[in-house]
Amino acid sequence: MRCAAAFALALTLVAALPALPDEASPPVRVVATFSILGDLVHNVGGDRVAVAPLVGPNGDAHVYSPSPADAKTLAAARLTVVNGLGFEGWIDRLVQVSATGAPVIVASAGVTPRRVGAATSGPVGIDPHAWQSVGNVKIYVANIREALVGVDPAGRAVYAANATSYLERLDRLDDEVRRAIASIPPARRKVITTHNAFGYFGADYGVEFIAQQGLSTEAEAAAKDVARIIRQIREEHIPAIFVENITDPRLLKSIAAETGARIGGTLYSDALTGPNGSAPTYIELMRHNVDEIVAALK
Question: What is the reported pLDDT for 265?
């Protein structure tokens, strides 16, 4: 009787454990359109997924041109995760060419879009860079979790546990960012950047970003916009100019030389770095950016 009871207890304990990947089954193939999204999928999916970002580290998704190999990658995937909000202007055509039968989910679904009006340089439209708000990324994580459960129901417990753990890390990150920005005098919370990628960050954390380009790196800064930025730097005593890892820094460097504003370092907007860089994950990207901003503005 004791043996039978012990055996029954052991079965109960095993059944209560989270599901582990089946060693005989390959990981779930997931395509993410760019490196930041790929990192979010990896954090939720863990070992149950194999993530293939189409636009890799330091790549610019605004000007990306998909290859035939990308179509094959999509065709072989069980799930494709896109940012949405108009960020990947090439994705619909790629999905069509690939003839994939796998679901395509929009990670930003549920985010309140930031609309850019005529007062901002560049075309009027929706800002797609929603991941620059940690609060928005928590929405991304929930959408990714549900999408993975949809294509791999056996992994539900794993995806739920991973998402919960990552959301807790994001909560701590959000607190870190708020405390760091609060240490900067409000009058000094103004920076110049290459393109208009930090609007969600600015709205959430109280920093004003002035960009030489519009929402996309494809847009070239007009002479009148450059003149406006130079005038604004001088009139408002804006202390720092930041370059980005995906854009040409030459124009900003010339603006800095003309105005005396300091080059504050590199900010990471649309892409992670490689594993040996300063921003190999989303959390490290945000921490790096905040450290650079605080060091330049305090």
Answer: 76
